[in-house]
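Posted in: Structural Biology > Protein-Ligand Complexes

Title: Requesting predicted complex, zinc ion in pocket

I'd be grateful if someone could produce the 3D structure tokens for the following input. Sequence and ligand are given below.
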Amino acid sequence: MREKVIINEVGLRDGLQNQPVIVGTADKKRLFDALVAAGVRHLEPVSFVHPKAVPAMADAADLTALLPMQDRALHLTALVPNLKGYERARDTGYRTVALVLSTTDTFNQRNLNMSLEQAIASCEAILAQARKDGVQTRTYIAGSFACPYDGPTPVHVPQELTRRMIAAGSHEIAIADTIGAGNPKQMQDIMKPLLREFGSERFFVHLHDTRGMAAALAWTACDLGVRKFDASIGGLGGCPFAPGATGNVATEDIVYMLEQSGFDTGISVEGLREAVAIASAATQSPQGGRILKWMHSQELRAQAKQEPCRT
Ligand code: COA
Ligand code: ZN
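-- Reply #1 --
Done. Output follows.
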């Protein structure tokens, strides 16, 4: 039997939060449905942030009202930046939330209007409340590889923040290369001790493809034993508070890579094409991972072979 890996689709949140076009709630729902039809079972469809900070997420509650929140086969997560966001997510029906803790003062300040110490205390307060409420928690360690403002992050920083968040009760941790600046050696250096200490069940990796390294980083993490990956349909993405960050690793690319390597993602690359088409139409710009270009070129070749010779 093939080993299972979890692909957590973050396109609707991370992907759409930074587009020049604000995608409407109905289009988001169509994209959600297409992703689920392709086999995606883990999704982060919304964040409960301040609507002025991220206007694209202002419809979080409206979108959630359209989602099958009671479907136990689906694992839906909402990103929460603070306790107020947590309460909004909980009251809207989310049973899993994703917290955000960045590795530097500057990044926390720009993202959350908090210092690093304030952000740690805020996460601890959310984790304590979530434990009381029976809500599952995942904490993003944003800027684990580099901070958009302060440059490369020493490996002990994400490791120490991970330990603090696990001690405070975070069920899972997402080690995030928020601006896509990491390299495979750094992935090994960060993850090896953490996987030894806490086991692979705890960890997601969250990768952006700014410098074309996301697939290499994903494979390195997989080789080390990580079995949970964030990805974004069509490679949509970026962070409004992390200048220079481009899209996440494309869902179709990581699914292709892992399926070809013998893992079971439960997702059909062919099925994801419909979702990419919806994402492209909704954002009014062409989206799509590298594997789609190859698939398209194969189709053109097949068509050319079928056409009668005209010379
Ligand atoms: N959702 C909606 N409103 C919120 C909120 C939330 N999560 N958190 C705070 N507010 C409201 C408060 O109620 C208050 O409203 P009022 O003026 O009507 O009383 C106002 O915002 C200011 O509250 P404060 O706690 O001082 O927030 P802030 O101005 O320091 O902003 C964040 C903090 C986190 C809400 C804001 O920086 C934010 O939304 N950032 C977005 C981060 C993000 O999405 N990053 C990308 C993903 S990692
Ligand atoms: Zn991201």
